[in-house]
């Protein structure tokens, strides 16, 4: 019954509701999606009804900034220095193609994202872009330190005001309601932020959500009562989380519910994780074949971006575009957006989502909120390697399998190449420092212990591989 209601609601909400979408240059013919260079002047925009902001449908998530180590294809300690020259180049390219929304946080990129974002954006007229950043006080609820975090964001971003300011990742913790109140209500921080909005330091105030539904419902009640006015809300929405977020992890909330609550209140939605950290772009060959049969020219990732951008209440869709080619391809998808048809939505919602669910991967989005690990473990790197082997049907299983020896060797060698030995799962001591920071609410120590045991069992039979 839940699935039937969700699917009907899905079609009602997505439907033909793209009338609010504004094309940058009406009447221009869209270029082929096979092109490598997006055309200028074709960006799709949405208007925020609360502020009148004309926001690009594609937003730049400044979480996964290009690093110098990525040029070498490594994840070694010390190779994570951000490549500011490349950040500048990609920001310039994005602005030149109509993208005007940049989302960052004091905790992204080991605390350096705001600084690098500020350097890149300061080179352009302030009115040509919107900055979104967050009150990321997840580890200290103290009012004074939270105020300093806000003021430091202004300094790092080299600006006098924040266009879109968020209470970051509400809904987490063992006592979600209690944590929410401690972070923002009991210490007077929300009232202080509302005062900053009145004086123009904040133009739009909202929150991002990960976790317990009771916190989300409380935030909606605060909006209804006038205790708070949310100018926008950031949620995770993609064709897997629409109906299956709660099934993947019973502490998460399906996007059909999150979006529906915003839609009926007229609150614009900012979308995060449209690709689930790349999992909806790097999929098993049999799923890729099915998508290509439907549309041979459309990149796999474009399906997910079109899905996230189609609902009429979506203001912008964030993507952490580390590489220039990611930026170019996403610009092609949204310059302009070709909304999904009802048939295409049902295809993703049923056929493709169900097949992804059958993979059994760890729901890690490689967001790196869990990092740095105090013991140096590359948590997302471990999960990425494990998930890739699962989705590629390359996990060594039974020793009776004729392919077992080859798969075992490939898994172990690939593991050592992807994750340095001193950063592998066997070094986890189970301290749990990472758990509260995970937006997907993964029991990280438990998963690391399980992977460590898999690796140990494979080594026992490998004879040195």
Describe this structure in words.
The chain has 465 residues and is of the alpha/beta class. 42% of the residues lie in helices and 12% in strands. It has 16 helices and eleven strands. The strands form two sheets. The protein has an eight-stranded parallel barrel with strand order 4-5-6-7-8-9-10-11, surrounded by five helices. A three-stranded antiparallel β-sheet has the order 1-2-3, with no helix packed on it. Helix 3 links the parallel strand 5 and strand 6. Helix 3 runs parallel beside helix 4 and helix 14 runs antiparallel to helix 15. The N terminus is likely disordered.
What's this entry about, in short?
The chain has 465 residues and is α/β, with parallel strands linked by helices. It contains 16 helices and 11 strands.
Offer a few descriptive terms:
3-stranded antiparallel β-sheet, 2 domains, 16 helices, alpha/beta
Radius of gyration: 22 Å
| pLDDT < 50 runs, ≥5 residues | 1-5, 14-35
Strand order of the largest sheet: 4-5-6-7-8-9-10-11
What is the CATH topology of the largest domain? Answer: TIM Barrel
Number of domains: 2
Q: Categorize the overall geometry.
A: globular
User: What percent of residues are in strands?
Assistant: 5-15%
Secondary-structure element series: HEEEEHEHEHEHHEHEHHEHHEHHHHH
For the record, what is the CATH homologous superfamily label of the largest domain?
Answer: NADP-dependent oxidoreductase domain
Our count of helices gives 16
What is the CATH C-level name of the largest domain? Alpha Beta
Distance between the termini: 51 Å
Question: Structural class of the helix and strand makeup?
Answer: alpha/beta
